[in-house]
Structures are given as C-alpha cells and as structure tokens.
What does this fold into?
Amino acid sequence: LFDVSGQGLAAGLVALLSKSIIDEEFSKNPKEHLGTILKNISQAILEKKGNVENYLKGALLRFNGDKVEYVNAGSPTVYLRSGKTGKCSPVELPNSSSTDELTIGRGTSANSDFKVIGFKMNPGDSLILYSKALAEGKDSLGNAYSKTRIAKVFG
It folds into this structure.
C-alpha cells in the first residue's frame, strides 16, 4: 500500500511509474530480502522520475503461508487484529523510532535502512492497512480519526 505525495498530473504519473517498478522489482526477486527489494524500488523510482519532486510512503508485505514479512517506509501504523480475541495490536519493531521520515523515490532513500518485521498470522486474523488520508479524515460529526481510534474501531 503506497501513497504518492502531492496532487495533480505529476503525482498521477509518479503513481503509474511506481506501480510498474514495484511490480517488476517484487516479482523478479521473490526470495530477496524485503528491505533490499524496497531499496531497489526506491532507487529505480528515483532514477526514472528524474527531477519530479513527488515521492512515496508506504508499506510492502510478502505472505508465505502463515508467515508475513513487512517493511514500513513512512506508512501509518499497520495493525494485526486477532481472530481469537479481537484485540488489535500495532505491528512494529520493539523500541523502534518513527518511520515518518522514511520515503521511497527521494534522494535520502538511497541510504535508507528499511527494516523488515516478520510475524505469523493465525486463521481468522486480519491486517489493517490504510493511508494517511484516513487518519487525517473526519467522521460525519467532525471527529478526527487517529491511530488510536482506528485501532479501537477495528479491535
């Protein structure tokens, strides 16, 4: 799940370019470390988009049976909802710093260390991924959604 910065024609073109690069990089190296795949994606986008300012933030996941690999590059918190208990917990590295500064397709991303989290999913479990538009949005009463509220609604 990726979100392109900005709006308009340039953002739309970066989205199209990025989708193609992500599909290509992800499928040509199915056994490669997920952090390396995301770094390759970021470098390819940076090279091919030229001087266009737009960049991406997002989450990349790979599923293998009940095992999940996940790397976060500036995406909002991903939650795992237990099918057994209904409890909704963030999927993140222990003692991790914020991933807000991580981006894809920006000069600084060439040196980024995209850390991979591995975890297991059980039957009935669900993952909740969303873009920042949901977290920044408001309901019909004008109440802002937040990470806490999103987890509570799905938990």
User: Anything to note?
Assistant: The CA atoms of residues 17 and 146 lie 30 Å apart.
